Amino acid sequence: MIHAIAIDDEPLALKLVTGYIQRTPFMQYDGGFDNPISAMEFLDDHAVDLIFLDIQMPDLIGTDFARMLQNGPKIIFATAFEKFAIEGYRLDAVDYLLKPFGYEEFLAAAVKAKKLIELESHKGSNLETNDEFLFIKSEYKIRRINYSDILYIEGMKDYVKVYLKNDPHPVLSINSLKMLESKLPASHFMRVHRSFIVNLDKIEVIERFRIVFGKVYIPVSDQYKEPFQKYLDENFL
Asked: Which of 44, 88, 105, 124 could form a disulfide with 101 if both were Cys (CB 3.0 to 4.6 A apart)?
């Protein structure tokens, strides 16, 4: 299931796109927003696969918003202005829908996005794993990393940082946090934020729903509070 949102300052256009998302069987509608600022606040706590994005908006134009995104949700631009097409493709957009468009055009773009998302989720070209460690490609080398050495993992736009005990420098790898999450043993690792996975065995201090690793405070976002609280309850004296 592809998690999708729509952003458009025109109420009728937003209603049309959200309706198209809701009627598409392989898509989960996660929200519609009339401005990018509200959408950004939502994305801080929710992982989204695909965004249908208008370009010409008063507070922040869609192309600038797309540049600000982290962790790489796919973008399909939906706009009435053909002049933005070249810039849209420079931003590696999946497709460019020119208003007015019908469901057939929408569906073709959505299918294209679905294929790309599925391809990326299954490729795993930079990761090989087993029950105790993983091999990860980093800076033209392949490194073995024991699960027991991992403190936490941070997801950036196009890569991840793996932070290890007794090592001040994280291991960088071109990968998505979603891909890495699928490889890690769920009994020991948990995603607590759209940008962070933590090693449950390494948690020593929790302060106001923030996990403390030395001077680093990792927030537990609303989307992940319930499973994290369940883990705490199961291990609470």
From this structure: 105
